[in-house]
Amino acid sequence: MPERWESELRQLQRAGSPPAGLLERATTATRVRFHPPRSRRVLAASVAFVVFAASGVLVLRAFQGHQPRSLATEIPRAVSLRIDLIAPPASGQPVPVAVVRTPFRSTTRDVAPQGGFSWPGADDYFTNALAYSATTLEGTPVVIGGDVSRAAVRIRPGDGGEWRSLDEGELFPAGHWQLEIRGEWDEGWARFQLFVDALARDQAPPVLRVRCSRHGAALDSQIVRATSVGVRIRVTATGHGKRGFEFWENRAAGGVGGSVTAGSSEVSTWLLEPNVPFDVYCGQELRDFEDHPDVPSFVVLDPENLWVGVEPDCDDPIERRIDIGPARIGLSDRERSFAALIQVVRERLPGLRAGDRVAVPGYPDRDSWMVPVVSVIRDGRVAASVHSIGVREVIRACPGTGIAGV
Q1: Parallel, antiparallel, or unpaired for β 207-213 and 231-237?
Q2: pTM for the whole thing?
Q3: Are strands 231-237 and 223-225 parallel, antiparallel or unpaired?
């Protein structure tokens, strides 16, 4: 057994168990009615992480069950500003906490009450006056969840001014803002405040610059604009020897990356999905890619809608194996293989509609896949994917689409 695996197992043995029901309460997708009530429901717009195939996987992580530093680092992030209000004992504190989840890991945290609270047995509990801050994206919703019964949200410019209520489903504007959230439970209430920087989407650069040093990674931006060939990233290394770098969608699955010689700077393109947070790690050895608490993160923006997903855009796609004539396609000529698969799908796939688009997933000018695979796009969403494997096609389709009888 590798030495690093043995080290991880020893850490897991020493790790204590979290309070009963902690993750269930923290991750339950409850919807809280803002006060005063309005006709619209709260927009629950957490973006699902989509599994996609990419070459160059360097490390398979085994951190499931690893004791979290906080609720915020355990719960997956998404491209939204989600605030879960959690009461004791699941909060781990004698008072409620606000679990703030942003696309960027360095600003995802647990926030203590500010501006007052009332909770049985916590009269002597001291909360400091730290100014908490978080970073999100322009145009993302504020989603309130957790085990709170009722919540009121206010917003004002970060440099002061008049408070106003944040409407249900309202998208966050670009700029620097102060946010106040008051949560109410049967046992009491708590008020939370934080400053929020919402990055303007039109400011995303075409190339993300990453600087790798012995201290880790540093980014010149937290957003980058996708191109037709993928995501362009320039990595510069300092120090001596080679430094490895990785871009991680989540800690359990590992990441994709490479290495760069110290003193040099290289630009490469990557198959990274838009609207998904990626953490950036730098190091000289495998152990340097441990679970750092403050690694920088970035999100790929795709204003031109270049990206085509490979997984059906639904919760429970159904898989079918059918023969629509792939045996003659072959894999010797990649371009012919993809073109032939597109033609076969258009002509023979049951349930295909006239307005459906069939395209190779990924970015339009990037050769990304080892075997032919195409996606069926219906009404702007991936309704099905078709993989050519052996003598049959593997179809994964969303229920109710009628594709392949699903």
Answers
A1: parallel
A2: 0.70
A3: unpaired
